[in-house]
Amino acid sequence: MSRSITVEAGTANHAVVSRDRWIAERQALLAREKELMRLHDQIARERRALPWVRVDKRYLFDSPQGPRTLADLFEGHGQLIVQHFMLGPGWAEGCVGCSYMADHADGMTAHLAQRDIAWVAVSSAPLAEIEGFQRRMGWKFAWVSSNGSTFNHDFGVSFTPEERQRGEVYYNYAMQAFPHAEAPGVSVFFKDAAGDVFHTYSTYGRGVEVMMGAYQMIDLTPRGRDEGDAAMGWVRHHDRYEPAPKKAGSCCGSHG
């Protein structure tokens, strides 16, 4: 095998080797990738095996079609995925990070439907404010308002002024500081033949990266996310990207 040399690759020096050595190192990494995939599959099985909680409270959501219950949001499917989208009452626009998540939704919904899954975004802002931002962003997915209900609070993504005044809120299954009254999350529900609804899963913090397919592509590249300590600092609403984006803080941050 030839001696490795280094060349300037973006912002860091990187090894350049023969094709044979590259194949050997790629095969070693492939073994690790397969380990990760097997672990991913095992965790998915454990996730499906989690016990469920019956949703007894009657939540009402404001939708373009009028008032809807949680059961109505399934749209005839047996499973429902909810994006808890950070858009509070009176906000000028939705969270940048939640918008990055939502940019992936329209391409997924037809495929999810084929696996008996409905998808909907839920925000605490009034419906008129949701619809205004949705039009701006050009999204077509279902989006409803939980304004006037305790849905967001019950599922750990909205915090009362009293909770915030204490300096810590209960988010991502632990007490922690959080800078906003709203937080991101993804929740999953199941509806049985009798129409009863069950909460099966929720994920928060970096768990919401499950919706960020672009990150999976970025992670394949030599520079990767290239974020340093400014997690998601480069992300903008898709109608506000500049040719050379400047880094800024994200409202979602990197809450692990």
Q: What can you tell me about this protein's structure?
A:
The chain has 2 domains: 44 residues; 159 residues, Glutaredoxin (3-Layer(aba) Sandwich). Strands 3-12-11-6-7-8 form a 6-stranded mixed sheet. It starts with a strand and ends in a 38-residue tail after the last helix. By secondary structure, the chain is α+β, with helices and mostly antiparallel strands. The longest helix has 30 residues. A hairpin with a 2-residue loop joins β1 and β2.
Structural class: alpha+beta
**Quick check: average pLDDT?**
92
Sheet with the most strands: spatial strand order: 3-12-11-6-7-8
CATH topology of the largest domain: Glutaredoxin
- Unreliable stretches: 1-9
What is the molecular shape? globular
Number of strands: 12
Q: State the end-to-end distance.
A: 42 Å
Strand coverage percent: 15-25%
Features:
Glutaredoxin, globular, 256 residues, six-stranded mixed beta sheet, two-stranded antiparallel sheet, alpha+beta, disordered N terminus, 28% helix
